[in-house]
Amino acid sequence: MSGDRAAALRAALAGILDAPGILAGSDIGERYKQDWKGMRGEPIAVLRPATPEAVAATMRVLHRLRQPLVVQGGMTGLVNGGVPLEGEVVLSLERLNRIEAIDPISGTATVQSGVPLETIQNAASEHGLFFPVDIGSRGSCQVGGILSTNAGGNRVLRYGMTRNSVLGLEAVLPDGSVVSRMGLMLKDNAGYDLKHLFIGSEGTLGVITRAVLILLPEPTSRDTALVALPDFPAVIALLRACRRRLGARLTSFEVMWRDYFGLVTGPLKAGRDPFAKPHPLYVLVETLGTEPERDRDALMETLGDFAGDHADTDAVLANSIAESNELWRLRDASGEAARAANPSAGFDVSLPITSMEAWVDEIHGALQALGVASIQTYGHVADGNLHLVIGYAKERPEMKGRINDCVYRSIGALGGSISAEHGVGLEKKSYLALSRSTAEIDLMRRVKAAIDPDDILNRGRIFTGGESK
Ligand SMILES: Cc1cc2nc3c(=O)[nH]c(=O)nc-3n(C[C@H](O)[C@H](O)[C@H](O)COP(=O)(O)OP(=O)(O)OC[C@H]3O[C@@H](n4cnc5c(N)ncnc54)[C@H](O)[C@@H]3O)c2cc1C
Question: Are 252 and 133 in contact (CB under 8 A)?
Fold first, then answer.
């Protein structure tokens, strides 16, 4: 049946997709079937257009056939949004991998959506420029993926979410029409800013094919420190001191609880614990600037004065890029740590920093009472974003639902968000109403139904029921 469907698609797409542009049967590799979290699905076929025009032509055919599809970038998403469901084809953007232009004068990169994040970071650097979005999956995730999930990451504190680094965007709608505003200007209030319909809507409204990204002058200083702290009030005090003393230089403030830090420096051996004794909390602080000596002095003085005022703290400062990277390994090992807790339930929640200490204590207690096997706690705390990875026994698969209920209901009651940065996908959609009102979800459904009345594009992701009939 699925073979017949693939053959019909191949015939309908002849002249649009070349031979490598359509895969069916045993030619479909595992990478198109399974996402980073391990969820699996069998697509009818994988379509791999090589140009934005071919994406639009492909979409016109799929629309005519009312063929459901799921869009795929680097498949590093953490909410199962890219996994093919029954009866879907995969539309992979991996061949749209050209950096079309880097313009040092306007400070922009015009790129196709299949370019990996790290490729853009490196290309910008070759021109003395800097693309500020940075996440642990930088080697694999693609522009289309970070835009459609509005990825956050390690530098949101200073540069905002991915949305803040985009000037222009091109997307193909479910019927194959192209909406293109590849603007190079920051100021453009001529009507709705339609790019924001596509940024963060997880591929449910259009297929992103190209974008104009904002590049900044490359910082000439980078200073990284790891600070060990006795309790959460000390974390808040350090954040306030860093903000006050370091100003715009402060780019990262990543907090790791002992449960996570002990795992990555111990059994996982992802990095070295530089301190003589264990501490309850660790903070990775990073500054980027343009005055190397003054920037380094500012960080050293801030940490020195902080240690003078707060007992039982310790700190190490990286002396080279290699040492800085070594400290970042501790935080970037979150992917390996999550895989080590298999099976597990992962969370990406946000809540006011003022509620964080009490919430973490409460949720740790509630999870332990449920009988979980392990807890990992870390996050981009300065922007209110916490990650939890909760391991449970293989023999108790029902635990996943109980853990989800426990965490999401308590975050909902606090007025926090069930998804700070990873999105909703399939994984969190049954909890969306804990973070969004009925009126908001209803409006999302109406927008979806207006743009995709046949509900063929990323159907059932974020919420069910976008179809207008
Ligand atoms: C180790 C690790 C660390 C991570 N750290 C962070 C982090 O700090 N912050 C953060 O926000 N996320 C993080 N993530 C999650 C993930 O990397 C990001 O969500 C990333 O943006 C996904 O990009 P991708 O290309 O892999 O997209 P995919 O996983 O392929 O797709 C993600 C979603 O976007 C849609 N999509 C993909 N491309 C397009 C397109 N061109 N047009 C329309 N829709 C599209 C898909 O249908 C799917 O719904 C991390 C993931 C890992 C594995």
Answer: no
Separation CA 207–CA 227 (nearest Å)? 42
Atom number, ligand 1, closest to the C-alpha of residue 73: 30
C-alpha to C-alpha distance for 264 and 340, rounded to whole angstroms:
10
pLDDT in tens, 75-117: 999 999 999 999 999 999 999 999 999 999 999 999 999 999 9
Distance 81 CA to ligand 1 centre (A): 9
Q: Is 132 in the pocket of ligand 1 (CB under 6 A)?
A: no
Q: What is the DSSP string of 368-412?
A: HHHT-SEEEEEEEGGGTEEEEEEE--TT-TTHHHHHHHHHHHHHH
Q: Where are the domains of the chain?
A: 2-92, 99-217, 221-334, 341-426
Peptide bond into 343 cis (omega under 30): yes
Phi/psi at 236 (5° precision): -65, -40
What would the pLDDT profile of 353-387 be if each residue is shown by its tens digit?
999 999 999 999 999 999 999 999 999 988 999 99
Structure tokens at 86: 């029954």
Q: Please state, rounded to an integer, the average pLDDT across all residues of the chain.
A: 96
- Mean pLDDT for 124-147 is 97
On whether the 2-92 domain is CATH 3.40.720.10, my answer is: no
- Taking the centre of ligand 1 as the mean of its atom positions, its distance from the CA of residue 14, in whole angstroms, is 30
Could you tell me whether strands 166-172 and 178-181 are parallel, antiparallel, or unpaired per DSSP bridges? antiparallel
What CATH number is given for 341-426 in this structure? 3.30.70.2740
Amino acid 2: pLDDT? 73
Residue 421 in contact with ligand 1 by CB distance below 6 A:
yes
